[in-house]
Amino acid sequence: MMKKLSFFLISSAVFASLFFVIGVLISRANEERKIETRKNLFVSYGLRSDGKSPFVSLPPFLAHNSARARLGESLFYDKSFTRTPKRVCSYCHALNEGGTDCKIRNGVMTRPVYNAVFSTVFMHDGSVTNFNDAVRMMVEGKNFCGGMPISNIVEKLSKDPKTVRKFQACYEDGLTEKNFLDAFSQFGRTLITSNTKFDFYFSGSTNTYNASEIRGIEIFKARNCISCHNGPALGGRKIYEGKKVSPLRGLSFRKTYLQQRPTSELSTVLTFMPEGDVENTEERISLIDFLKTM
Prior knowledge:
Elements: H1 2-44, H2 66-76, H3 89-92, E1 104-105, E2 108-109, H4 131-140, H5 150-157, H6 161-170, H7 177-188, H8 197-201, H9 211-222, E3 239-240, E4 243-244, H10 266-270, H11 281-291
Antiparallel strand pairs: 1-2, 3-4
Helix pairs in contact: 2-7, 4-7, 9-11
């Protein structure tokens, strides 16, 4: 009887150890796969990272065609194809205000254009999954620039010799719908909010953050904020409860937050985040201090 019991106990211990080892190996493999996926994502944008950290500093801008980007910038301020002067892109997406005037129009707050190039879902409900398609919707939409089809815009712009020459200088086939959208796309690659405290810290400048901000990093991780706010811009890649998860990068440049209940207080924003309503006052302050560095 004792021999059978001993054999059973030994066998149980062996199987328990085996399952533990298998669990550790699976967990390690999953973590390595997550790191590799994250690294590949960052590398796809030309960002340097080993993938071990969910955070990465942003460059001043991504690789782009400078001449086409300048053309896109001119279109960003062009009033000739909008319904009214207030429908021009730069009116709502004020670059000196973080890329948005934070006003509610047709029930939706204006989204910031900074770091939009890192998004994979666009519009407030994430219904668009391509940057150029998002530009098309904004330009053609009656609630945005004015509702004129891009084909009509191209036809209108083609009557302006100066605009035609600009496109001919940038594109072999000149002014076309495709090139009109590409010019915006090239300009979008220059709209990056880099050179923040966040960027300096995650570039290796370890004396940039104070103790509270460093605690904020750990709280951000511990509360799994990264499950929604991930990628180069920490957001813009996922839908949560029917709404696009806003990128956190560029947060320090904005004055108003939240689509549904606009507020200028980040502490109020946290109360609407899953696991974000931090009861501990010191932890809440540290998390907010960290967010303000972005």
